[in-house]
Design brief:
DUF34/NIF3_bac; GTP cyclohydrolase 1 type 2 homolog; metal ion binding; 380 residues; DUF34/NIF3; DUF34/NIF3_sf; 12 helices; Udp-n-acetylmuramoylalanyl-d-glutamate--2,6- Diaminopimelate Ligase, Chain: A, domain 1
Length: 380
């Protein structure tokens, strides 16, 4: 069976749903033909000259990256601009580019799950949870007969009744409806001025809140009554495993000094290195991690009651102020690129799972961290 770019996009967007992306983000297919066949895929953190060149060298028809190439709005991709040159190089080489960024950060599993696994942390849940998409429940009352099937099918066609891997989910119960048509009414059952009692079925279905308008319209269009009765209820938000960062535990407690060495050994080396803030002899067992820039989640790490928080791009002032908070965890700061690199193997497995073994899937090992030189400072 031939695998296409579209097949792999479907698998990647199932694993990393675009709806999880931040509203400022740019994810999905950047360039390339979804119907092109694929026999080689390269997965990397960054869409930069080094990884684009590597994709060309191995003949990859698809380059999957975590970071976007065109994050901010552009008015053109001329080859006389750095990013435009990359787009032209990809197109000329027949390589599509697909990005999973903040949607991969919040997915389950996602970027931080890969980081936790690399560090030997057993994940218990998200650091900053994201609720599941909000749901409504629609309840309507239909006269017994073929209209029940017609209404059910109409609501299902607009997205009602989908729960997990199941569709057309509903609950029905029997009852008696009562109404009295008034002057001006054109009742499907009964006559004007006379009280009617009708055997009816109460039909209940859940629906994504974003589909509320379409589902209600489908109900009105398919229901035999001139004025169908229905209830529309907003369901409570449910917690989920989705969200930013992860919280978990080590198999055995160890010192912050030993844990920092563990982090350095688990991640690819960079000029940035690995640095820690806290008592080197502090005991570490419960751990929070966040792949990428994570100082926005410092407060969540304190609230989680962990012993250490591992992330990237910690800024001086938030880190200093964090250390003053009672119960603050120790901090381990790593290079942004290194914290997200373990995700590449996870994404590669997603791609492999969408093929019959007929696609060569590789993870780039080229270090694209922008920091290239580290020099120890002199004594003060």
């Amino acid at each position: 069976m031939t695998t296409t770019v579209r097949d792999l996009i479907t698998a990647l967007e199932t694993a990393y749903p675009p709806r999880l992306a931040a509203d400022w983000d740019a994810v999905g297919l950047v360039c390339g033909d979804p119907d092109e066949p694929v026999d080689t895929v390269l997965v990397a953190v960054d869409p930069v000259p080094e990884t684009v060149a590597e994709a060309a060298e191995i003949g990859a028809q698809l380059l999957v990256t975590h970071h976007p190439l065109l994050l901010r709005g552009v008015h053109g991709v001329g080859a006389d601009t750095p990013k435009g040159r990359l787009v032209h190089r990809l197109v000329r080489g027949g390589t599509a580019l697909f990005t999973a960024h903040t949607n991969a950060d919040s997915a389950d599993p996602g970027v931080s799950d890969a980081l936790a696994a690399a560090l030997g942390v057993t994940v218990e849940g998200p650091l900053v949870g994201a609720p599941l998409p909000p749901l409504d429940k629609i309840v309507t009352f239909i006269p017994v007969g073929p209209a029940i099937t017609a209404v059910h099918e109409a609501l299902s066609a607009e997205g009602a009744g989908n729960i997990g891997d199941y569709s057309h989910c509903s609950f029905a119960s029997a009852g008696t409806g009562q109404f009295k048509p008034l002057d001006g009414a054109n009742p499907a059952i009964g006559t004007v001025g006379r009280l009617e009692r009708v055997a009816e079925t109460r039909l209940e279905m859940v629906l994504p809140r974003e589909k509320r308008r379409a589902v209600v319209a489908a109900l009105r269009a398919s229901h035999p009554y001139e004025e169908p009765a229905f209830d529309l209820l907003e369901l409570a938000e449910l917690p989920s495993a989705l969200g930013l960062g992860r919280v978990g535990a080590l198999a055995e407690p160890e010192s912050l000094r030993a844990f920092t060495a563990r982090v350095a050994a688990a991640l690819p080396s960079t000029a940035w290195g690995v640095r820690a803030a806290g008592d080197p002899d502090r005991t570490v067992e419960r751990v929070a991690v966040c792949g990428g820039a994570g100082d926005s989640a410092l407060g969540a790490a304190v609230a989680a009651g962990v012993d250490v928080y591992v992330t990237a791009d910690l800024r001086h002032h938030p880190a200093s102020e964090h250390g003053l908070l009672p119960g603050s965890p120790a901090l381990v700061d790593v290079a942004h690129w290194a914290s997200e690199w373990p995700w590449c193997a996870q994404a590669a497995d997603v791609v492999r799972g969408a093929t019959d073994g007929n696609v060569d899937v590789r993870v780039s090992r080229r270090r694209t961290d922008p920091w290239t030189v580290a020099v120890a400072g002199g004594e003060t």
